[in-house]
Amino acid sequence: MTPLAITAYTATTALGAGRLAQAEALDQRRSGLRPNDFGPAPRLDCWIGRVEGVEEVQLPPVLARWDCRNNRLAWLALQQDGLLDAVGAAAARYGAARVAVVMGTSTSSIGASEEAYTRLDRDAGGERFADDLQRPIVHTPHSIGDFVQHATGLAGPCVTVATACSSSAKVFAQAARLIQAGVVDAALVGGVDTLCGSVLYGFNALQLVSRDKCKPFDASRDGLSLGEAGGFALLERATETDPLQLRGYGESSDAHHMSAPHPQGLGAQLAMRDALARAGIEAAQLDYLNLHGTSTPANDAVEAIAVAALFPEALHAASTKAWTGHTLGAAGIVESVFALIALDTGHLPGTLNATIPDPVCGPQIRLAPERRALHYAMNNSFGFGGNNCALVFARP
Fold first, then answer.
1. What is the pTM for the complete model shown?
2. pLDDT one digit per residue (tens) for the chain, 396 residues
3. How far is C-alpha 187 from the geometric centre of its chain's CA atoms?
4. Number of domains in the chain
5. Has 165 been annotated as catalytic?
6. Looking at residue 67, which CATH number applies to its domain?
7. The Ketosynthase family 3 (KS3) domain covers which part of the protein (predicted)?
8. Which of 73, 111, 167, 361 has most Cβ atoms within 10 angstroms of its Cβ?
9. Given 46, 165, 214, 389, which residue is catalytic?
10. CA 303, CA 257: separation in Å to the nearest integer?
11. Catalytic residue among 262, 292, 316, 347
12. What is the span of the domain harbouring residue 12?
């Protein structure tokens, strides 16, 4: 593919707001996980990656119809790292109608819908949402995409991708196709997912939530820790002077099982191979791989098998889920930001909380951090149903 420049990028997670907060926590090996304090008691006995201050965020009056916890986190994330200024400059350069908005999410604003059903208007026979939640847009999957478009004033194509945990990785591929087809000249991509009852109790019902801090790829791992996050990146056609680029993407749907990956990771391998091919590089040229690494027994083992089948031993591959928790539909953008930070700083994170690697892990799976210059970084994001996406980023 023709490289695309990443001219602005940011993430807000349990580690803090903006890129610097992420980079410092990764460097200090300081996790953002904390004992579950979300929602009404009794609460699940687990650890979560909760973003501080979301409840205090105030949307501008003109955006009041989109008000909900998910869109407040989106608004908080939009304010970081000069993102809005960069978006405004792109709109001025190309025209607002020539800049797309492509957002990823897993549950969007379902937390608002949960609240609406717990507060049904009893005067209307318990069949009507309370007046303050009579806002249909926040009860749809497109809530986040519609909100971001109105919050930024962009007027190009607006898409919300909802493919579970690969959602905000696939936005890069969607945007690349829009730009390369000439539909738009630039795209604001990103993803936001917030904690809610459906997420916590849904994953717990699948027996995937650990009572302890997650420890990806550790031999004794027993489940994930859930988190919330928001992040964004601005993509434009690349020039020779652009320091960070999207160089390739690969997508696959192996459809092996509703929630379990293919046992040999065939879909994951296909996505990674296609990303490398589009980037025009060999597997041996990849320096860093941010693994999906959820800390569930099946997912980590399958990903380790797939990585060992494709890459030489020199690759530094690690999971950052123990810093932020699994941020679901926002994982793709957050961990793409981590890959870009690695390209910027030369800091390759290890895998936090893991001490004894699962025997299935090859030497590519690293527990300790490393520092060195790198040119190519990949991010893996795999979702339910075998919906897979791999992205290759580069510093030319």
1. 0.96
2. 999 999 999 999 999 999 999 999 999 999 999 999 999 989 999 999 999 999 999 999 999 999 999 999 999 999 999 999 999 999 999 999 999 999 999 999 999 999 999 999 877 667 889 999 999 999 999 999 999 999 999 999 999 999 999 999 999 999 999 999 999 999 999 999 999 999 999 999 999 999 999 999 999 999 999 999 999 999 999 987 889 999 999 999 888 777 677 777 789 999 999 999 999 999 999 999 999 999 999 999 999 999 999 999 999 999 999 999 999 999 999 999 999 999 999 999 999 999 999 999 999 999 999 999 999 999 999 987 779 999 999 998
3. 17
4. 1
5. yes
6. 3.40.47.10
7. 1-395
8. 167
9. 165
10. 16
11. 292
12. 4-394
